[in-house]
Structure prediction request, 479 residues.
Amino acid sequence: MLWQGLMDEARERAVRGRAALQPVFFGRDADRVAITLARDNAMAAGVSACIDWQVADIRDLQVPAGATSGLVVSNPPYDERLAADTRLYRELGASLRARFAGWRVALITVEDAMGFSTGLRLDKRYTLYNGAIKCQLMRFLPVPEKAAEPRALALSPGAEMVANRLRKNLRKLKTWRTREQVTCFRAYDADLPEYAAAIDVYDVVDGERPEDRGLWLHVQEYQAPKTIPEEETRRRLGELVQAAMQVFELPRDRVALKTRAPQSRQQRYQKQDSRGHWLWVMEDGLRVRLNLFDYLDTGLFLDHRPIRRALRHYANGARVLNLFAYTGVATLHMAAGGARQTTTVDLSATYLDWAANNLAANGFSGQSHRLIQADTLRYLAAETQRFELIFCDPPTFSNSAKAEDFDVQRHHGDLIRACMRRLTPDGLLVFSNNFRRFKLDADIDEDFEVREWPTQASIPVDFERDPKIHRVFDIRHRA
Prediction:
């Protein structure tokens, strides 16, 4: 009975206390969904009466009516893997300096440089952990009437090394890019072993929004050795992204970041995100559709640039077949090269739809451009037509539920022979793959005329650091 009495008294005091409260907390976020969820949580906790929620950008922050001082607390993006944009911190500092003189400020971040970019003076610092991420609570002195301008973020020594290498690479590639009119290229490929990632640059000519035009980066992290602590790999990746953002003068939302850990057979083609954000770039006068965020690859294999140009040259007047076609960019080039008929085969309906968009955007549609959803080996067994030009670029492995398991080393002999049965007597099969330990079956070399492309012909300048990224063969019937 005594316990029940104390509980009833506490509940009554809580009800009276909440009823007497006017809003003393003010929650702001630019994301309407986040505000809705926060409001629902406050209602569930019974404290909604003392919190004023509004959708607002940090650049539009206003002091609550009647308030003369208070505490501003913020948890801006700070994860090193996300490489938070320092522009956000500078804008937050500018807004506070403009309207919140006398207020105290506390920020959760991972490093002093981020907090100092607000232009505020540090009072105390407390070390915290957000899960496994080491971070800190930075408490600042009250905002003065005239605060200092925010300091530009100084790169760490490691990030500065990456930035210097990026600048060096850009200078090296400039003449080649101008001569070859290349607008999408690899700017960095694990040049510094400690910063193991690839940075690809895409010059977007069109998108769903006018502001999509311009440079975008696609950063692919390579899997670090297990001997390197996770915290260290996170730090290095954060430094690499910060360096890239500074060199290219881009905000964080123009950087697509993916981890390139070894993929299992089940994971290899799984969707990575669901943004549905489509962009268009130009390659050799052709519009190509990209998605930088939703899939492991972007829709355009940059290292295949020389192969596509060769196929375009070979295709004039030919009936052409593109197998394991992915997004059909090779088909697009062969159509632009004057192919009289194209056939594009892939097992994925998503990729075939992507290929159809690429073709239609460049004026190639109708019965002369067939798109077939099928397993390649089954298609080749059933097809009766012959082709003057076949391009076959199989994956290293595949285990789709819609087809038999495929391993390029074990099955390439059967695949090549099936292709050659569909090739005209004077036709050409261009066969490529990305398996680094690939060895062509000896009987293929004996039965057909085989010429492997030299490295300088198949590997573009921006990929020359990794000459084993793919191998390419021209295969013909023997006379």
